[in-house]
Amino acid sequence: MVEVTDLAIIGGGPAGFTAAKEAMVYDVKITIIDNCPQLGGQYHKQIPAEFKYQQNENHKETQLFDPLRSSNLTILNDAVVWAINPQPEQDQFLLSISGETGIPHRLIAKRVIVSPGAHDRPFPFPGWDLPGVMTAGAAQILIKNQRILPGQRFLLAGTGPLQWSLAHLLISGGARVVSIVDANPFPWKALGKLPSFWGQWERLSEGARYWSSIITSGVPIHFNHSIYRAEGNGAVERAIIGPASGGTYKSIDVDTICLGYGFTPSSQLSIISGAEHDYSPVFGGYIPVRSESLETTIPGLFAVGDSTGTGGKDVAIAEGRLAVLGALSQLKINIHADTIAEIRKQLNRQRKFAQILQELFPYPAELLNKMPADTVICRCEQVTLGDLRAAMQYGFNDQDNLKTLTRIGMGRCQGRMCKATLDQMINPLTQEQSPGKEKLKSRPPAIPVTIESLLEEGVGHDS
Ligand SMILES: Cc1cc2nc3c(=O)[nH]c(=O)nc-3n(C[C@H](O)[C@H](O)[C@H](O)COP(=O)(O)OP(=O)(O)OC[C@H]3O[C@@H](n4cnc5c(N)ncnc54)[C@H](O)[C@@H]3O)c2cc1C
After folding, report:
1. Yes or no: domain 365-433 corresponds to CATH 1.10.10.1100
2. CA 117, CA 115: separation in Å to the nearest integer?
3. Which of 44, 55, 73, 350 has the greatest number of CB atoms lying within 10 Å of its CB?
4. Which pTM was predicted?
């Protein structure tokens, strides 16, 4: 089944649904595609419709998404976009989609906004593959979306505000947070940036709420500390923590360890489209090169939100608005210059705030050098840090060669849990060879889909 639309928006998080809302008032056909049962993305993850819950629990989200009803808007939920093919001769794009009955397998769109978000950035150490170790994002989804507490005694290891938010969620859910370790120092430097916090009232009050839970529950936070090892017989029983600079280690009895070391952009779709990307050590992955109006190097393809480097929901919202106005003006719709200027102003303010958080809580990349050679990097294929270092010593310094030699990234998760670490290891070398850019090879599907949907698409047949 093939359908046609003016504007396709991939991802229904804050960036995507704001773009759709902005576009709805114009005379264009919009299609928003999201692989979850409901819109909302990471920030507004909704409780599944089939759950029985107290009426006010989803109230905020219901209010937010109710206005997203319009005859010119089609919402495709539970649908995965797995490839984008630019067709420049026809000034359009062909999107390949996988989903249940009724979901078109192909969508032709005149303009496309890509907003698929990000996922947790991995942090490897001995024992991180034991049951009971999970990412902070996974724990958050289990609690917020499924109402499941994934353990009882928690250690939160990582850096930055996501840790505080998770601690608050866990404490509110009745869990015992034994300790929080943050790889960076206490954010005293924030005091020198106070003017940039002006107006960020929602964020500041969220932060205050989280800290109040942590303090009143007596949870110790060890700044400048890291996790070095998880131990246990078949599952986590204890965590070994210590100063980030090395020194005396301490053992803490816990059954669950949540890792919150930031995010890595989900840029597979924009990479597959052929758009140019740069490696960003700050954002932990490849991000699309974009113009001021957030258009990628493929004309008509815009990329916004966390998939271009995590800046938080307010950056995502402002980017969604700005990109959609750029796309609409290419569709010959008249957009007021004042509106664009106002959004740019908002975006700059939000980006400044996001940048401060990134500076205060950077990913502790140097800690990888402190991990022993038997640390597993690729969990699917059991490739260790020692395997990679040995291959690199023999001159295998790019992704393709390392993949062929060690099988890193070739397992079930297709690099989701190891690629950011691999990028971090090889990029200092690649940058010397080809100033900051690496020729990225990525083939569809962008995320795993069923064989059935590939057959429907005619992959492997002339069609
Ligand atoms: C795990 C995690 C936890 C976070 N926790 C917090 C928090 O506690 N507090 C906070 O302030 N911020 C948090 N953030 C950051 C905040 O949620 C994001 O900055 C914000 O949601 C970004 O919006 P977005 O629209 O760019 O992406 P998202 O909100 O991630 O939305 C992207 C959407 O695209 C969908 N999608 C992805 N790929 C495809 C595809 N191929 N086809 C179809 N749909 C697709 C996803 O399912 C998702 O619904 C978190 C982010 C992550 C990743």
Report:
1. yes
2. 6
3. 350
4. 0.92
